[in-house]
Amino acid sequence: MAVGIFFTSQTALGMLGNSALLCCFIIADISGIRAKPTDLIVKHLTWANFIVLCKGIPQTIATFSQTYYLDYVSCKLALYFHRVARGMSLASTSLLSVLQAITISPNSKWSQLKVRAPRIVGPSMALCWALQLLRYGSIPVYTTDIWGRRNVSGLKDYGYCAVMSPGRLIETIFVILFSFYDIIFLGLMILASCYMVFILLKHKQRLQHIHRTLSPRSSPETRATQSILTLVSSFMFFHVTSIAFTSYLSVLEGTSRWLFNTSVAMAACFPTVCPFLLIRQHTSVFRLFCTCSHQTSPCACTVREL
């Protein structure tokens, strides 16, 4: 009962937060606020969060009802798109931190890259979706429903679906390959985050005497960078923990229900927290736009640039 209530609360809270974030983007489009390059990445990240959280629905039903199982096709689709969305969440967060690092960089050598970056965001996101769909192409092959497990040996019961074991050697190879991919994107996030911290500290030291005389409120770029750093740090904590549980379950003989429930909960933690880390930045821009909408047009243009 406690596990079922936790999954219900987590899924409902995550769906509510991501829906509110999408509503912010819809309001921005209707109001005529110019979209930033990072907005497209956040939109893809939000949709990936939705797909990850959708797994909490059958997980919650299976927790309350011990006789609830998905059918053959639904099992394959549920586990496949859940893994694809998790990979897309990693790629989106990594690209978001890298793009933000390029944007705030004072290095003149990156000036051409700053101009080209907004143009390649769309193709980059499409490429990431394609790579994720290909990367987890083996998931539907080894996924089956609970009713068909009697004809197959070496199954791992995940509550409402089952996964066939391809063998210890193949499982170990899959874990190594998937972990290598995750390490690459996590490394990019770490490098971009460290670079942004370095730029912020250097900028603060240069303008320290100005900050003493002017308003202590930070610039929009600084606030946006701080929100990205908070997003990346929380993502890294939840994602690394989830990878550890998933990798352990992949090579574990048999199935431990509490380990599986913990792995599902950790995988859904970031999609639940993510929209609340981003929504404050967007709503503040919308409030400023509504205030300036009754004034002159230059004010509205300034808001659109934020």
Shape-level CATH architecture: Up-down Bundle
Number of strands: 3
The helicity comes to over 70%
Kindly report the average pLDDT value: 75
Helices and strands, in N-to-C order?
A: HHHHHHEEEHHHHH
- Can you count the helices? 11
* Overall tally of structural domains: 1
The main β sheet shows up as: 3 strands, antiparallel
Anisotropy-based shape: globular
Topology:
Elements: H1 2-31, H2 37-54, H3 56-64, H4 72-104, H5 111-135, H6 139-142, E1 143-144, E2 155-157, E3 162-164, H7 168-206, H8 208-213, H9 220-251, H10 257-292, H11 297-305
Helix pairs in contact: 1-2, 1-3, 1-10, 2-4, 2-5, 2-10, 4-5, 4-7, 4-9, 7-9, 9-10, 10-11
What does this structure look like?
With 306 residues, the protein is mainly alpha-helical. The protein has one domain: Rhopdopsin 7-helix transmembrane proteins (Up-down Bundle), CATH 1.20.1070. 79% of the residues lie in helices and 3% in strands. It contains 11 helices and 3 strands. It has helices spanning 2-31, 37-54, 56-64, 72-104, 111-135, 139-142, 168-206, 208-213, 220-251, 257-292, 297-305; strands at 143-144, 155-157, 162-164. The chain has a 3-stranded antiparallel sheet with strand order 1-3-2. A hairpin with a 4-residue loop joins β2 and β3. α1 (2-31) packs antiparallel against α3, α4 runs parallel beside α7 and α9 packs antiparallel against α10 (257-292). The termini are far apart. The model is unreliable at 284-306 (pLDDT under 50).
Short characterization:
The protein has a single domain (2-305), classed as Rhodopsin 7-helix transmembrane proteins (Rhopdopsin 7-helix transmembrane proteins, Up-down Bundle). 79% of the residues lie in helices and 3% in strands.
